[in-house]
Amino acid sequence: MRAGPPIKVSATSYMAFLRCPAQAQARYDQKAFPKETVDSFRGALVHRLIARRLRSGPFEDVEHAARVEIGEALNEKMVALGVNRPSLLAPIIAEAADLFHRFCRFPIVGFEEAEITIGHELPDDVTLVGKIDGVFVDGQAKVLRDWKTGPLGEPFNQLLFYALVWLLARGEQARVEAFSLQTGEQARKEPSLADLQMVGERLADLVNQVRSVWEGEATPRKVAGPWCAHCPVLASCTEGQEASLMLVSGYRARQ
């Protein structure tokens, strides 16, 4: 990888790079970050409830547990979103409780750790970090599990990133799984060394791009797609604006 200033690569920045290198570059340049939304707040709350269940066992009053979790970790986000009034917060808690009850239908045999932050220092001042929803043991194999509060989509790019960081940090290969609490979809994969090598190559591309832009030697590539509608740098991206207009036009045509 290209030498340069220290750089940290998370699953979020890695996924942003795969979608659109220019979007990832904006994050590294501290120009723009995705805005907090009610959906992301609700998702964070669901994951807090799941971690509580895994670590402490079953509990009956989900609403009370949700309010405790908000007070402990999500109060600032709640206030920033303006949903701290009871009439606005109650339906969010109800939706989070519904998703949590769906989680309770999935088996949790072999649970070992919840919300684990892992990291690894690579040469040339590159740090990889990831946060895994749950780690399980299946026989002799470790399983890294991710719960989605929306549709499953394409989960493996993110999961393979976790698998690589896990291998580097813990020295063992792990299976990866994703579950959608909303739709019930499930996906599993036993990453091969070729899969993990591919992730490593993409990470090298990310680091090389960011550092070359910092040195003034390159301009980040823009890739338009459905993600453009929610991109934090949409206002300054002609390609993204055109893609967003096409999506809106297509939606209206289907109505």
Describe the structure.
With 255 residues, the protein is an alpha/beta fold. It has 2 domains: 120 residues, Trna Endonuclease, Chain: A, domain 1 (3-Layer(aba) Sandwich), CATH 3.40.1350; 66 residues. The chain has 8 helices and 6 strands, in the order E-H-H-H-H-H-E-E-E-H-E-E-H-H. A hairpin with a 5-residue loop joins strand 5 and strand 6. It starts with 6 loop residues before the first strand and ends with a helix.
Give the ordered list of helices and strands. EHHHHHEEEHEEHH
Write down the CATH class of the largest domain.
Answer: Alpha Beta
Q: Name the poorly predicted regions.
A: 250-255
Into how many domains do the coordinates divide?
2
- How many E strands? 6
N-to-C terminal Cα separation, in Å?
49 Å
Radius of gyration: 20 Å
| Global mean pLDDT | 90
The number of distinct helices, counting runs of at least 4 residues, comes to 8
CATH architectural type of the largest domain: 3-Layer(aba) Sandwich
Find the structural class using helix and strand composition. Answer: alpha/beta
Summarize the main sheet: 6 strands, mixed
Share in β-strands: 15-25%
